Amino acid sequence: MRILIHACCANCLLYPLKSLESKFSEIYVYWYNPNIHPYQEYLKRLDALKRLEREKELKVIYNDEYDVVKFLRDVAFREAKRCEICYYTRLSRCASVAKRGNFDFFTSTLLYSKHQKHKLILSIAEEISKEKGVEFYYEDFRKGWRDGIEESLQLGLYRQNYCGCIYSEQERFLGSLKFS
Fold first, then answer.
1. Residues in Cβ contact with 87 at an 8 Å cutoff, skipping those fewer than 6 apart
2. How does pLDDT run across 107-166, given as a tens digit for each residue?
């Protein structure tokens, strides 16, 4: 059984990898995150994944398109639905790659974070699964939240302090957003 796991960052990948290793014969990681802002943040997260790839001998497919302008255009005037749009964009692309690569399943590290909208991710992933014709593998990776943090600290991985987009950066450092 083969699975393709979308990775938002190296830190969030650690626990899901451990969990999936006993369930799948082949695990490939997929990097596609056009939402991350600013570009320097994008590069830090990408470099952390490349370092983890070398250290753990991972199989990684990089879709290194930094298209934050498209992300912002997709979200403009729909900021309250930005997470939904972002999840759909990344999971849809992952499912397409999984379909083309004859993977049995696709999943995402987004299911690891306690800060993500878990039910929304699951709903979107199930919709995409039907659209693309590739199975979505669901597991609540949040149960390994503490383990993943501890391992990332031990490995000295770059640890971001917001989800990734400009809106989450503002929420993290200014508190809340108001959309008129």
1. 110, 117, 120, 121, 124, 125
2. 999 999 999 999 999 999 999 999 999 999 999 999 999 999 999 999 999 999 888 988
Tokens encoding 48? 């952390």
Distances (CA, A) of 98 to 29, 37, 124, 136, 165: 10, 26, 16, 10, 25
Q: Which domains does the chain have, with CATH numbers?
A: 2-174 (3.40.50.620)
Whole-number pLDDT of residue 62: 98
Q: pTM of this prediction?
A: 0.94
The token pair that represents 4 in the structure block? 């393709």
Tokens of 155: 């490995």
HSE-CB for 76 with a 13 A CA cutoff: 7
